[in-house]
């Protein structure tokens, strides 16, 4: 059997998502269906699925329903569930406003996630999101081929390992077609690994870096919002700054991470809706006759 699924496609710095509108939580979303939708040859194609569901109608969002009407149910492209997605929450907010499901509001738009409530400030081209405070909590390493790089583990509501490149190692030369080897005793649920190199100074910004990322459940992606947040936190920490802004260049564009004077952390960047339609996908559990 086959089934039709209505979708919208969106991206933030080329980190792309299949958006499914399911206000009342009626869609039976499964790992197999998510993987089929995200398949770049047989489905719509994407790094993940964003299901738009009212917080009160989702078991993991119900506890946040008093503070946020909408819950971002995010799944990686392999069908695994993730706690948070920084590019995804900006695209999610863009979808809500574009479809008149929520008003942007001067105070920002609250979005419930598995990592807590994020506040999205929707502007014409850019969306700024107040994120969870990143927490640097351990030193570790990542190995790519014969290269082992030291890094810092950062909790952004989901796990990250930020590895700075030095000694002439070039970011562009890394082979991230397979996942870096990491300490599985530290990262029991897997980890997103960011590799970082310094970039030229930019006016008005405290630091400027470039990064590539291998995301658990999705492989190397063009961008990772929470990864940029983790990278920004490490960059400010290494510079001895308690606040400031960091430009993080990813393969798909530029994100800006800011820790303001009040200690709030913000992620800013574009969020674009590119298409809507319907796709026919196999219904999980059924074989063609």
From TrEMBL:
Residues with site note (Could be important to modulate the pK values of the two catalytic cysteine residues): 160, 215
Pathway(s): Amino-acid biosynthesis; L-lysine biosynthesis via DAP pathway; DL-2,6-diaminopimelate from LL-2,6-diaminopimelate: step 1/1
Active-site residues from the entry: 85 (proton donor), 85, 224 (proton acceptor)
Subcellular location: Cytoplasm
GO molecular function: diaminopimelate epimerase activity
Keyword list, A-Z: Amino-acid biosynthesis, Cytoplasm, Isomerase, Lysine biosynthesis
Any one annotated GO CC term: cytosol
GO biological process, alphabetically ordered: lysine biosynthetic process via diaminopimelate
One Pfam family in the UniProt entry: DAP_epimerase
Catalyses which reaction(s): (2S,6S)-2,6-diaminopimelate = meso-2,6-diaminopimelate
Top class in the EC scheme: isomerase
Entry superkingdom: Bacteria
Binding site for substrate: 15, 76, 86-87, 158, 192, 215-216, 225-226
Catalytic activity, EC: 5.1.1.7
Alphabetical list of InterPro entries matching this protein: DAP_epimerase_AS, DAP_epimerase_DapF
Function per UniProt: Catalyzes the stereoinversion of LL-2,6-diaminopimelate (L,L-DAP) to meso-diaminopimelate (meso-DAP), a precursor of L-lysine and an essential component of the bacterial peptidoglycan.
Family that this chain belongs to: Belongs to the diaminopimelate epimerase family.
PANTHER family, A to Z: DIAMINOPIMELATE EPIMERASE, DIAMINOPIMELATE EPIMERASE, CHLOROPLASTIC
Assembly and binders: Homodimer.
UniProt-recorded name of the protein: Diaminopimelate epimerase
């Amino acid at each position: 059997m086959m089934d039709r699924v209505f979708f919208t496609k969106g991206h933030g710095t080329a980190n792309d998502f299949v958006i499914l509108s399911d206000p009342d939580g009626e869609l039976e979303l499964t790992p197999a269906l998510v993987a089929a939708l995200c398949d770049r040859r047989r489905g719509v194609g994407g790094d993940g699925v964003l299901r738009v569901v009212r917080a009160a109608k989702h078991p993991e969002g119900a506890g946040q329903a008093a503070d946020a009407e909408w819950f971002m149910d995010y799944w990686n492209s392999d069908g695994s569930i993730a706690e948070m997605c920084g590019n995804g929450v900006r695209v999610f907010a863009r979808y809500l406003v574009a479809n008149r499901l929520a008003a942007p509001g001067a105070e920002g738009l609250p979005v419930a996630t598995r990592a807590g409530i994020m506040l999205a400030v929707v502007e014409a081209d850019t969306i700024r999101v107040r994120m969870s405070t990143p927490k640097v909590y351990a030193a570790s390493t990542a190995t790519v081929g014969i290269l082992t790089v030291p890094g810092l583990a950062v909790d952004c509501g989901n796990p990250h390992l930020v590895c700075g490149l030095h000694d002439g190692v070039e970011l562009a030369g890394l082979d991230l077609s397979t996942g870096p080897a990491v300490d599985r005793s530290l990262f029991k649920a897997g980890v997103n690994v960011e590799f970082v190199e310094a970039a030229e100074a930019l006016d008005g910004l405290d630091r400027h870096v470039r990064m590539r990322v291998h995301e658990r459940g999705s492989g190397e992606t063009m961008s990772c919002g929470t990864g940029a947040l983790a990278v920004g936190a490490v960059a400010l920490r290494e510079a001895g700054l308690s606040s400031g802004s960091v430009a993080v260049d990813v393969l798909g564009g530029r994100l800006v991470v800011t820790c303001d004077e009040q200690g709030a952390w913000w992620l800013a960047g574009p969020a674009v809706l590119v298409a809507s339609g319907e796709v026919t996908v196999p219904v999980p559990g059924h074989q063609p006759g």
